[in-house]
Amino acid sequence: MSGSQIRQRLSAIETELRHAITELNADWATRSISEIIDAMVKAELCHHPLYNRLNRLDAAQCQLDLGLYGLCADCENEIEPERLAMDPTEQRCQHCSEHYAHEHRQELRLSH
Question: Structure pTM?
Answer without folding.
Answer: 0.86
